[in-house]
Amino acid sequence: MKPEINKKLEQNNIKPTAMRELVYEVLDKNKKAISLYEIEQQFDNVERSTIFRTLKTFQDKLIIHSVDDGSGAVKYALCDDDCTCSLDDLHYHFLCIKCSQTHCLKNMPIPKVDLPKGFSFENANFVIKGTCPDCQV
Ligand SMILES: [Zn+2]
Ligand SMILES: [Zn+2]
User: Fold this and answer.
1) How many helices (H) and strands (E) does the chain have?
2) Which of 23, 26, 42, 46 has the highest CB neighbour number within 10 Å of its CB?
3) What is the DSSP letter of 117?
4) How far apart are CA 30 and CA 11, in angstroms?
5) Ligand 1 centroid vs 25 CA: distance in angstroms?
6) Which bound ligand lies closest to the C-alpha atom of 95?
């Protein structure tokens, strides 16, 4: 087990297991938001439900966040160390229409919204679609 991943999991009260380490590594390596299906492609013979449970644990412990970019699959990305997944930590995401990759625009926080009385905030997806630097011609 990689010591830095081990430490990261333990710091967030997640018992380090081989599976958790592998999933963390995939997310860390990608630097983008990726879907359950894409994570599954990185493994041979791992049940999708096992990966899903691992992602659920990571999300409960606030080390990853999910984004629904409208592509039909929820995507997951690692949070920054100081992220608490509160409204202040939510950022824009960018879906490239050419490569279908979803980028976290972590330095672009979403605007504050004043909801009408009686409405309570749960989550927000701010997704910009366009062409990423890799796909510009
Ligand atoms: Zn692209
Ligand atoms: Zn993100």
Assistant:
1) 4, 6
2) 23
3) T
4) 22
5) 22
6) 1
